[in-house]
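PROTEIN DESIGN WORKSHEET
SECTION A - STRUCTURE
LENGTH: 284
TOKENS:
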């Protein structure tokens, strides 16, 4: 059968990545992946194109999304997998999340304008060309305008937390994010927990219905990965992993840096099937 690896954390141009779904699938196919999920921020807009591209290349596609959430003041990201991308409540909430993102762009650009940086907000939205814009699009506009040399400088000078153009973002609560994904027939996974040390609140998240942990991530050291594998075993959580590839928005593309083994994908699929069966019994 050969190697059947997966990457379950990928971003496209429908949020803050630079690849189209078609480009991402073509490169993943070239590298030998067989299962993919895109997890764009607060949007499922790219799922139909990703599903078609995967089908054309004979790859398995798992619908995904990455939600920015908060628990007791801690920002955490929740990955959703296997949900119905056309679920009405899910789409309604995506519209809400995207409106927040768009308003944040307006506020960040207004702060830049107040610093006598004549950046038109229309240019940022044109560069984003999606419903779920973010800070990387503002950074790209600053580079294009010659204000900054590169994206790193744009973030360091203006867009990182506590920098002059940074604007805090409204976040959904973690329990609400988990319930939303469950009602749409999906499972909820804690993204890259090593980036914000979510260990103290993990028992609470499990009680709230958390299904899994992203143990394998580009920024997780082997020690961190082993710690979360142990915690996943302790709490009966599925294990996921992915490169968190954003294309060229964050340096070189990371696709290929994480290759999730098939046994983890199989367990995730079993959890998704159980969730869907539960939804069917409830008539949702």
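SECTION B - SEQUENCE
RESIDUE ASSIGNMENT:
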């Amino acid at each position: 059968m050969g190697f059947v690896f997966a990457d379950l954390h990928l971003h496209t141009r429908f949020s803050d990545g630079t690849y189209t779904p078609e480009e991402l699938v073509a490169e993943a196919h070239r590298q030998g992946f067989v299962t993919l999920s895109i997890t764009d921020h607060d949007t499922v807009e790219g799922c139909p194109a990703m599903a078609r591209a995967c089908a054309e290349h004979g790859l398995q596609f798992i619908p995904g999304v990455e939600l920015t959430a908060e628990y007791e003041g801690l920002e955490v990201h929740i990955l959703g997998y296997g949900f119905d991308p056309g679920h009405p409540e899910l789409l309604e909430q995506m519209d809400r999340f995207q409106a927040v993102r768009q308003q944040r762009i307006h506020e960040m650009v207004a702060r830049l304008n107040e610093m006598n940086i004549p950046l038109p907000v229309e240019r940022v939205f044109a560069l984003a060309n999606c419903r779920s814009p973010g800070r990387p699009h503002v950074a790209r506009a600053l580079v294009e305008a010659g204000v900054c040399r590169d994206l790193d400088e744009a973030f360091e000078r203006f867009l990182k937390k506590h920098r002059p153009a940074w604007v805090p973002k409204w976040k959904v609560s973690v329990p609400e994010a988990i319930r939303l994904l469950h009602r749409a027939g999906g499972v909820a996974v804690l993204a890259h927990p090593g980036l914000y040390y979510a260990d103290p609140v993990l028992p609470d998240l499990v009680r709230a219905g958390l299904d899994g942990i992203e143990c394998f991530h580009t920024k997780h050291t082997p020690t961190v990965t082993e710690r979360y594998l142990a915690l996943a075993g302790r709490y009966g959580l599925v294990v996921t992993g992915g490169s968190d590839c954003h294309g060229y928005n964050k340096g070189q593309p990371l696709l290929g840096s994480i290759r999730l083994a098939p046994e983890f994908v199989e367990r995730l699929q079993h959890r998704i099937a159980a969730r869907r069966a539960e939804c069917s019994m409830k008539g949702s």
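SECTION C - NOTES
Strands lie at 6-10, 35-38, 60-61, 64-71, 74-81, 172-173, 187-190, 212-217, 238-242.
The radius of gyration is 19 Å.
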